[in-house]
Amino acid sequence: MKLDLDTFLAYQLINVASLVSNDLAKVYQSKFDLTIPQWRILANLAQFGQSNAKNLCTQANMDKSTVSRAIKILVEKKLLITQINSEDKRAAMLSLSEAGKDMYKKIVPEALKWEKELLASLNTHEQGLLISILNKLKNNLQA
After folding, report:
1. Is CB count within 10 Å lower at the N or C end of the chain?
2. Domains in the chain, ordered, with CATH?
3. Alpha-carbon distances, residue 8 vs 3, 5, 18, 106, 114 (angstroms)
4. Where are the alpha helices (DSSP H) in 53-123?
5. Is 42 in contact with 60 (CB distance < 8 Å)?
């Protein structure tokens, strides 16, 4: 039996995810000097408000060392604020600084424009179907 990579779902999803991530990175790398992991940390903190490094690993689906390096640089750039977690002194709570919020607000319109251009090849029904299918697959894998 032979595996056909042109129709093997995992292979196709990984390739599309990589292409999407690398293409979107052009939006925030050249203008804002952010790496893919740094952007993912900013985006997750913008959505969830506050988190710790361990939870960010899960939320952003990245390994601990990648998250730690990204956090360190974002703190050095003064885009993140760290606060002692009163419940667990070992796990600092992270949130966006005002500069981090400002940067995020500048990136979002450009990211949405990029997404609109990417999805322009799909009609409205196909766009909804794509999101629905991806959510079903994600929920099935998380169950």
Report:
1. N
2. 9-142 (1.10.10.10)
3. 7, 5, 16, 38, 27
4. 53-60, 64-76, 98-119
5. no
Tens place of pLDDT for every residue, the chain, 143 residues?
A: 899 999 999 999 999 999 999 999 998 998 999 999 999 999 999 999 899 999 999 998 899 999 999 999 999 999 999 988 677 667 789 999 999 999 999 999 999 999 999 999 999 999 999 999 999 999 999 88
- CA 79 remoteness from chain centre: 16
Which residues, at least 6 apart from 14, have a Cβ–Cβ distance to it below 8 Å? none
**What's CA 33's distance to the chain center, in Å?**
16
Helix (H) or strand (E) holding 24: helix 9-32
Beta bridge partners of 95: 81
DSSP letter (8 states) at residue 49: S
Q: Tell me the C-alpha distance between 86 and 33, whole Å.
A: 33
Count of alpha carbons within 13 angstroms of residue 73, beta-carbon side: 14
Question: In angstroms, rounded to a whole number, what is the distance separating the alpha carbons of residues 77 and 99?
Answer: 9
| Residue count of the chain | 143
Helix (H, G, I), strand (E, B) or coil at 118: helix
